[in-house]
Each structure stands twice: as structure tokens, then as C-alpha cells.
């Protein structure tokens, strides 16, 4: 299990959070309960199983729904 | 296609705006209705594209977002041929989002300034004796690093060689540079204003004080209060509810125009954004002033404070004894001070240190025949004189006669809460020193500010004897003061106050008062202190600077007020919009969108005021 912190572009509407949360939670390999989208810091924190999904795939899932990913960091959970 | 649209959102917004403006211009000046219509149709399609895509993505993950409402509304307007409305609404929505992003960045700027201070590289000493620039993550504990003028200190460390002055504002909020010399501690994220220093890394990466502060601040800004969580939950059902309402309106009235107007008016926005905006700006202001406020729940409790409980030692007082008063008798004072220092130099009594510090540079003599009288002091021979250093009991044993003036001085010193150090040379009283843990300078003013800010009870709890406690309490004009208290008793005392229905804060330096920090509503740690204190507390005053406390309280009050204003703006606007929709005829989609976006900007701008908050002059 790895822990990822993904920095997004500035989030402006809190309903964005619901969207991002739902999009990331739906991914295979992402631990559902670990997903946390922070509005003010515009960050997504989550734990994922690196055997099932890569950080790039998670990032592209977010980009696909229209939010720019600035930076992502992965470390051991 | 989709990426292209998202990427060029700003350009689309601009083009959309230009088209709308051109359309109206041509209509008003040239009466060109054909161009007017075509321009508006193009603008509508162009503007709706990014919104519609976002709506689509939202629906795919089963979220009824605000984009969904707007897309349906625009689509509806388009179908009934109201291109004016569809174009204007898309423009206002896009332009509003653009402005919101810009202004939101401003409210978050204070915190961003702080996180941007994070050092990125370090000059590390390698095996062949050269300094090489490496990423700060590659620095390990024990590494030797070089810091040059103007550079950031990369890790927490100890100065090995060199001298300089360091701006520690990022850690303490204090902008006056601190002088550093070999042996001094330096902190990551601080800036070396001048000089060059070599340091040994003590704490690196996420263990540095700076990294901990950043982490706390980051967590704080998104730590939600119960009210916010409620609003979030509410918003989740609110948008679908608006959709249903609009459908019902259409069913009943068969008026598409009215139904889609409901969609636009019902957009939540200011409500969900209002509180987070206030809290991020308030926390940001605090971070700039050396105050860490841990989230909006903390801000709420803090703002309602009516009782503050203080630890005495290290909080209201400096925390170490020093010579507060001196009185000399007779001649040869210089010599006597030398004798006193010579004796105290060999003692490890806590008062000895204070006495030595007071005397400073002097001539030291060899000390002979030292005799320690337990609980009273020391008698020794220095330079052929019999010297007695100790309390009044020792003077009596040594048959030192005290004249009327000396007796009066002693009584007076004792009344002020001093421990006495008397020095007799050959049976003659020469020096009288009063040693006590002195009250922090300026603290009386700060306590008065707290009172003016509405704190009714200022209470001091201390492990010291009641006499000392009373002296400090009287001087500081506290409401209550209790001595002889153990840490658990302090915590129990706070618990009792809470049961009486008071909102209680506890201020301590974190050394053995963690139970009290935890049991008060608001635990305020005089930071720079221990990590435990920083973690268990709700508010941290960096650099143990007591004078930040009034600012912290004023800021919390201003932030809590700001949140309420924002909620009021948000709810008020929606109510006004909906009532005017049903009870007046001037309301339409465009005005609705304008007011809606306006209210979002209003709450953001209102929140931004907090960035500039300072304690009002009438309170300072």
C-alpha cells in the first residue's frame, strides 16, 4: 500500500470536491475510505495498491474530469 | 477535444465575453439584430461547451454538480430561443469562476507564502571536503552543511562554525533577525540575512519544526467544524433538490423560462464556499503573525472564550529565577561582589546561577574552608575574610547584626516574592539580593488587552506556594490564583470550570501541563516548546511570544464574525432571489446568475479582509 498526495490546480467550487472524490473512489486499487479531497489546500490524499494501479493512472482519472494535476508525491503508507 | 476545452477555458471565457459584448454593441448602435442573434448563438455554444463537459463528467460519477444545473438551464434557454439569456448566463458563469479562482488564490496566499518558504536544496560537505548542492531530501542527520548569506537554512541544526544573523519569521513570526554563533540552534525555512555558517543537521525532512508547522497549517485549513460538515452534507442533497424543484415548477406552470430560472437561482455557491474562505484567510493571517490556529472548530470555540487559565512558571513569568532587586551596605562593594561570585561559582544551587548572571565580569578568588549549611547557605574563607552567603537564618547563626534599614529591606523584598541571598563579610551585611522568577515584560498590558477583548476571568494555577502565587496575581490583577497545584489538579480545576458552563482556554508552555492543554476547550501552547505541546494544543504561539495572544484572540473573533457574515450573505441572497422570482417580474436568468456570482465574489472579498486583520487600536 502506498500513500499519495496529489496537488491540483486551485479548487474553486466545493462541488468539485464531490466530483473528484467520486472519480477517484471509483478506481480499482484505490482504498475508498482513505480518499480525502481538501478544498483550501487543493490536494487529494489517498492510499492505493501499487500492484493494481499506478499514480499516473490516478492522476489521469482526475485530469479526465477536468482538473489539472500539478504535482504528485508517493510514499509508503 | 475535451482536454482542449479544459485547457483553453480562459480563452473561451474571453472569446465568449467579446462575442456577447459585440452582439449588444451592434444591436444598440447599428440595430443589427441578425448579427446580434448569431453572435449570441455562437457565444452560447462556445460558453456552454466547457460547462457541459464538466456536467457530463459529474453525472458519470453520479454527482449533480452546479455545472449540471447551469447546463440544463442554458440548454433550456437555447431551446426556447432565448439566446440572450443563454449567452449571458454562460459568460457570467465562466467569468465568475475565473474571478473566483483569482481571488481565492489571494485568500490562500498567506499560507502559500509560508509553504513556499520550504527549503529545496542544501550545500552538503562531501568526503573530499567540498560542498556540493544536493536536494534537501538527501540530507541525513549528522551531515555538515554550509549556509551562505541570503540562503535558507535547509534543516534544523546546530551551528558548528561561523556567525550570522537569521530571520526566523517563518517559524516565529518575529522579523527582527536573531544572532547565531557556534552552538546556536538554527531552524529549517529561516533565512540567513548575513554571514556564513556551517551547521550540523539535527532534524531533517518531515521532522523539522518548519515541516511540522506546515503540516499543521495545511491540516488546519481543511479541518472542518460541525457546521461546515453540515453544510457539505446539505449541499450534496441541495443541488438534486433544486433540479427536482425546477421540474415541479415546470410541471405546474408549464413555463420553461421560469423553470430554468429556478435552476440558476438555486445554484449553491456562496454558502458552501463562505466558511472555508473565512477560515483559510484567518488561519493565514495567524500563520504570518506566529500563531497557529488549528481549524475552524478551534476558531469558533476560541472566539467565545470567557475564561483563560494560565500556568505561572514559564508562561506569565520568564521561567527561570533572576536577581530582581539588589541593596548594598557599607563600602568595598566591588570586592564583596567578587567574593560572592567566587563562592557561588562553586555551587550548583539554582539561585547561584541567577546571582552569577547578575554580577557578570568580576575578579575571582580562591575559596577555602567551604562549609555548606543545609537549608541556609555557605560559609567560606576568601582572601582572608570570612564570607557567609545565604538566607536570614544563616545570618543569625553567624551573628550578623542587621540594622533597621536592612530589616526593612528584607521585609520588603520578601513581600515582593523574592528568595533572599544575603552576603556578610566578616560578620557585616554587605549585599542583599532578591531573586525571583520575574514576570514577563509587557505581560500586564497583554492581559488588559485580553480583558478588553471580552475575557472575564483570568486565572493562574501554579505548583508554587500560595505566597509567591499571590504576589504575581496581585501585580497582574488576575481574577483568581491558586498555588500548590499538581498537574492533575490543574486539569481537574479546568474540568470543573467547564462543567460550570464556561468556555475555557489553558495557556501553558507544555512542560508537564499536557493534561490541562487537553482538557480545556482551547489548549494554547507557548510554542517553540515541546512537540507534544504543539500536537495536543489547539493554538500555538510560536517563539513562546505571549504578546501574540491578544492578536490571536482578536483574530479568532474577527474570523468567527466573518464566517457568520458570509453565511448571512449566502442565505440572504438565495432567499431574496427566490422571493423576487415568485413575487416580482424583474427577475430573470441573467440577473439571477449575476447576483449569484456576485454573492460568491462578495464572500471571497469579505474573507480576504481577514488577511489584513490587526488588533484594533482601541484594544491595543
- Kindly name the structural category of chain A: alpha+beta
Overall shape of chain A: it is globular
Low-pLDDT segments of chain A: none
Number of domains of chain A: 1
Strand content of chain B: 15-25%
Overall average pLDDT of chain B = 86
Distance between the termini of chain B: 58 Å
**What is the first-to-last residue Cα distance of chain A?**
6 Å
Shape of chain B: elongated
- The CATH topology of the domain at 310-493 in chain B is given as Calcium-transporting ATPase, cytoplasmic domain N
Strand element count of chain B: 20
Specify the CATH class of the domain at 310-493 in chain B.
Alpha Beta
What Rg of chain A, in angstroms, do the CA atoms define?
A: 11 Å
Evaluate the radius of gyration of chain B: 34 Å
CATH architecture of the domain at 310-493 in chain B: 3-Layer(aba) Sandwich
How would you portray this structure in words?
The complex is a heterodimer of chains A (77) and B (620). Chain A has a 4-stranded antiparallel β-sheet, with helices on one face. Helices cover 29% and strands 31% of the residues of chain A. Chain A is globular. Chain A has helices spanning 14-25, 55-64; strands at 2-8, 36-38, 43-48, 69-76. Chain A has a single domain (2-76), classed as Alpha-Beta Plaits, CATH 3.30.70.100. With 77 residues, chain A is α+β, with helices and mostly antiparallel strands. The longest helix of chain B has 36 residues, at 548-583. In chain B, strand 19 (522-526), helix 22 (531-536) and strand 20 form a beta-alpha-beta unit. In chain B, helix 5 runs parallel beside helix 24 and helix 9 (226-253) packs antiparallel against helix 11 (270-288). Helix content of chain B is 54%, strand content 20%. Among the domains of chain B are: 120-151 and 156-203, Calcium-transporting ATPase, cytoplasmic transduction domain A; 310-493, Calcium-transporting ATPase, cytoplasmic domain N (3-Layer(aba) Sandwich), CATH 3.40.1110. Chain B has 620 residues and is of the alpha+beta class. The chains are: A alpha+beta (77), B alpha+beta (620). The A-B interface holds A 10, 12-16, 18-19, 22-23, 26, 38-41, 43, 63-66, 68 and B 2-3, 6, 50, 53-54, 57-58, 60-63, 65-67, 97, 100-101, 104-105, 108, 111, 218, 221-222, 232, 235-236, 239, 268-269, 272-273, 276, 279-280.
Amino acid at each position: 500500500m502506498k500513500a499519495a498526495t496529489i496537488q491540483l490546480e486551485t479548487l474553486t467550487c466545493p462541488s468539485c470536491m464531490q466530483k473528484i472524490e467520486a472519480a477517484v473512489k471509483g478506481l480499482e486499487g484505490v482504498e475508498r475510505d482513505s480518499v480525502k479531497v481538501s478544498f483550501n489546500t487543493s490536494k487529494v490524499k489517498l492510499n492505493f495498491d501499487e500492484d493494481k494501479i499506478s499514480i499516473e493512472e490516478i492522476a489521469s482519472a482526475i485530469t479526465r474530469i477536468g482538473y489539472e494535476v500539478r504535482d504528485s508525491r508517493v510514499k509508503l503508507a | 477535444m475535451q482536454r482542449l476545452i479544459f485547457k483553453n477555458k480562459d480563452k473561451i471565457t474571453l472569446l465568449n465575453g467579446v462575442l456577447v459584448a459585440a452582439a449588444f454593441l451592434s444591436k444598440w448602435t447599428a440595430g443589427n439584430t441578425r448579427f446580434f442573434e448569431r453572435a449570441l448563438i455562437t457565444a452560447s455554444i462556445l460558453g456552454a461547451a466547457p460547462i457541459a463537459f464538466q456536467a457530463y463528467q459529474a453525472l458519470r460519477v453520479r454527482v449533480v454538480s452546479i455545472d449540471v444545473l447551469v447546463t440544463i438551464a442554458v440548454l433550456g434557454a437555447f431551446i426556447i430561443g432565448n439566446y440572450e439569456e443563454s449567452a449571458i448566463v454562460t459568460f457570467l458563469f465562466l467569468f465568475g469562476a475565473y474571478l473566483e479562482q483569482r481571488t481565492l488564490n489571494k485568500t490562500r496566499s498567506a499560507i502559500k507564502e509560508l509553504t513556499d518558504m520550504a527549503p529545496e536544496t542544501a550545500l552538503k560537505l562531501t568526503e573530499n571536503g567540498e560542498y556540493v548542492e544536493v536536494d534537501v531530501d538527501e540530507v541525513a542527520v549528522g551531515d555538515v552543511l554550509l549556509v551562505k548569506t541570503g540562503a535558507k537554512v535547509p534543516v534544523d541544526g546546530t551551528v558548528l562554525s561561523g556567525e550570522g544573523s537569521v530571520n526566523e519569521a517563518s517559524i516565529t513570526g518575529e522579523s527582527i533577525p536573531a544572532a547565531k554563533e557556534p552552538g546556536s540552534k538554527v531552524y529549517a525555512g529561516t533565512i540567513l540575512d548575513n554571514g556564513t555558517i556551517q551547521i550540523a543537521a539535527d532534524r531533517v525532512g518531515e521532522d523539522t519544526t518548519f515541516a511540522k508547522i506546515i503540516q499543521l497549517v495545511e491540516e488546519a485549513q481543511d479541518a472542518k467544524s460541525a457546521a461546515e460538515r453540515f453544510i457539505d452534507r446539505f449541499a450534496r442533497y441541495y443541488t438534486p433538490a433544486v433540479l427536482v424543484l425546477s421540474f415541479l415548477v415546470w410541471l405546474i406552470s408549464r413555463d420553461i423560462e421560469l423553470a430554468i430560472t429556478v435552476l440558476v437561482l438555486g445554484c449553491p455557491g456562496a454558502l458552501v464556499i463562505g466558511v472555508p474562505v473565512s477560515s483559510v484567510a484567518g488561519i493565514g493571517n495567524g500563520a504570518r503573525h506566529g500563531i497557529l490556529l488549528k481549524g475552524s472548530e478551534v476558531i469558533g470555540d476560541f472566539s467565545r472564550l470567557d475564561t483563560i487559565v494560565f500556568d505561572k512558571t514559564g508562561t506569565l513569568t520568564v521561567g527561570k529565577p533572576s536577581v530582581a532587586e539588589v541593596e548594598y551596605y557599607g563600602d568595598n562593594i566591588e570586592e564583596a561582589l567578587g567574593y560572592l561570585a567566587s563562592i557561588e561559582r562553586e555551587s550548583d544551587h539554582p539561585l547561584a546561577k541567577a546571582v552569577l548572571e547578575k554580577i557578570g565580569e568580576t575578579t575571582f578568588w580562591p575559596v577555602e574552608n567551604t562549609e555548606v549549611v543545609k537549608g541556609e547557605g555557605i560559609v567560606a574563607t576568601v582572601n582572608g575574610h570570612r564570607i557567609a552567603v545565604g538566607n536570614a537564618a544563616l545570618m543569625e547563626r553567624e551573628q550578623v547584626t542587621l540594622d533597621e534599614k536592612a530589616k526593612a529591606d528584607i521585609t520588603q523584598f520578601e513581600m515582593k516574592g523574592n528568595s533572599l541571598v544575603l552576603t556578610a563579610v566578616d560578620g557585616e551585611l554587605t549585599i542583599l539580593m532578591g531573586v525571583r522568577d520575574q514576570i514577563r515584560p509587557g505581560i500586564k498590558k497583554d492581559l488588559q488587552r485580553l480583558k478588553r477583548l471580552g475575557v472575564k476571568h483570568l486565572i493562574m494555577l501554579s505548583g508554587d506556594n500560595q505566597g509567591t502565587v499571590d504576589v504575581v496575581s496581585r501585580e497582574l490583577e488576575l481574577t483568581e490564583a491558586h498555588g500548590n497545584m499538581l498537574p492533575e489538579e490543574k486539569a481537574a480545576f479546568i474540568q470543573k470550570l467547564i462543567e460550570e458552563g464556561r468556555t475555557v482556554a489553558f495557556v501553558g508552555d507544555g512542560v508537564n501541563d499536557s493534561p490541562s492543554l487537553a482538557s480545556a476547550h482551547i489548549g494554547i501552547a507557548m510554542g517553540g516548546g515541546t512537540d507534544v505541546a504543539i500536537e495536543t494544543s489547539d493554538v500555538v504561539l510560536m517563539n513562546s511570544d505571549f504578546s501574540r495572544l491578544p492578536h490571536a484572540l482578536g483574530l479568532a473573533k474577527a474570523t468567527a464574525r466573518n464566517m457568520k457574515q458570509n453565511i448571512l450573505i449566502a442565505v440572504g441572497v438565495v432567499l431574496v432571489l427566490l422571493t423576487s422570482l415568485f413575487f416580482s417580474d424583474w427577475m430573470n436568468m441573467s440577473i439571477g446568475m449575476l447576483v449569484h456570482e456576485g454573492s460568491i465574489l462578495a464572500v471571497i472579498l469579505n474573507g480576504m479582509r481577514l488577511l489584513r486583520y490587526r488588533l484594533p487600536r482601541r484594544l491595543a
